[in-house]
Amino acid sequence: MAFLKRIETVGNRLPDPATLFFIGFCLVIALSYLASAFDWSVSSEVKGELRANSLVSSDGIWWLLSHMVDNFIRFPPLGIVLVGMLGIGLAERSGLLPALLGAAMQRIPAVLLTPFTILVGILSSLTLDAGYVVLPPIAAAMYLAAGRSPIAGIAAVFAGISAGFSANFTITALDPLLAGLTQAGAQIIEPGYQVATTANLWFMMVSTVLLTLTGWAVSSLWVEPNLGDSGMDAKPGINIKNQLELNDIKGFIYALISVLIGFILVFLAVYSPSGPLHGVGRHFPRWVEATVPLLFLFFIVPGIVYGITTGSIRSDKDIARMLGETIAGLGPYIVLAFFAAQFIEAFKYSGLGEMTAIAGGQWLAGLGVPASLLLSSFILMVILANLLMGSASAKYAFLAPVFVPMLMQVGISPELTQAAYRVGDSVSNVITPLNPYMIIIVVLVQKYLKGSGLGTVVAAMLPYTLVFAVVWTGLLLLWLALGVPLGPGGGLYYPG
């Protein structure tokens, strides 16, 4: 607890992520000047001799001023995250996603309570915040109704929501965000390099099954036996038997019909020779390049249908309000994106990223370290970094411009580096005090167990972190050994 308390204290003293990027931006300016002043150069067989561009020079200052707006507008994750989140946000605010999650949690056979709890937790990453808010109290009430510790229910669903955050059976808003940052890092080495939103899809689908089974084992063999009857004398926080009304079921039916119609239309658009999604786009199959717009439609249409059916949407003004609230909720991300964009583009313009990547890659290649060891070390570094910086996008925006091109130099694809990052970033979410949703879990646990606190939560979640880290890393290394692509457009190796 003393160690965790120190981490919490240090982490809380760090500036806001936007401020960190501004500091990084200033640091790049200073380093570009020093590298230029001392005439640092790096030689590459492909790129020739490279030198740093000073951002303090006349040309450098002009570049900073003339590109500031373009850097922000063209920041790869910005537009795709905003578009994707518009659809997800409306589906959440209309009541469709929270009700759907609640309905799924209420209809689980007793013998499969734990694996379904973990699985629904993992799948809730589609809803981002909704999973943290909706699922833990429902899971606690269900476990209590089944004569089991509600703390075990909270731990199981929290493990799925947070430690399995990157996994899913489909594309989530996280995929385009990370793909954009990976692409920006890869373009330091290869300007035209493109990273597909679906690059990690197959790996994450298999990860979903594996983490569900792993979490089931951890819960049954380790966590739940240690919790015993903790919290079982408390009153349930939610009456799970009366959550769904007839109107909700009617809304589900109409929303499902709209989804099925959407799938039929997409199928025809992809496989019909004259369909708009048939064939190959600029870099990938058209349906892959249209993933984000399709994600938007597959959430916003059933969300509107459900809202109109249940009465949560009564006019176009309600739709506009929900969309506005979604964008308003993304305000901190937009601010973060502005400073992250300036940092990444300044790093790229200075040449420091490319030079560091080439020098680091040449050093790594000289060591002859196998790719499996490099990836394992990177995952461990991300796990440790997550204890001090909770934001997945903030961490990766710092790490991607350095490690993506560096690992490209030793033949590791950007898509594989991205997958390794997702493993390390997810597994320690449940033990870091800097997880912004940790307070929700702590407060809920205190409701069932008087005198509990952060230590109670961390003690319950630590087994998930340890086992998930080992198992998930093992899956990635097995994937590498088998040579199977990580997803559509997700190769394992970079030819250089």
Alpha carbon gyration radius: 24 Å
Q: What is the helix/strand order?
A: HHEEHHHHHHHHHHHHHHHHHHH
Q: How many structural domains are formed by the residues?
A: 1
Helix fraction, binned, reads 55-70%
Compute the average pLDDT.
84
The class by helix and strand makeup works out as mainly alpha
Unreliable stretches (pLDDT < 50, length at least 5) are 238-242
* Cross-sheet strand order for the largest sheet: 1-2
Q: What distance lies between the first and last C-alpha atoms, to the nearest angstrom?
A: 46 Å
Number of helical segments?
Answer: 21
Strand content: under 5%
Based on the model shown, name its key terms.
two-stranded antiparallel ribbon; 2 strands; 2% strand
Topology summary:
Elements: H1 2-13, H2 17-37, E1 41-44, E2 48-51, H3 58-73, H4 76-93, H5 96-106, H6 113-123, H7 129-145, H8 150-163, H9 174-186, H10 201-227, H11 246-271, H12 286-289, H13 291-310, H14 316-329, H15 331-350, H16 352-367, H17 371-386, H18 392-408, H19 414-427, H20 438-448, H21 454-482
Antiparallel strand pairs: 1-2
Helix pairs in contact: 2-15, 3-15, 4-9, 4-13, 4-14, 5-7, 6-7, 6-8, 6-10, 7-8, 8-10, 8-20, 8-21, 9-18, 9-19, 10-21, 11-13, 15-18, 16-18, 17-19, 18-19, 19-21
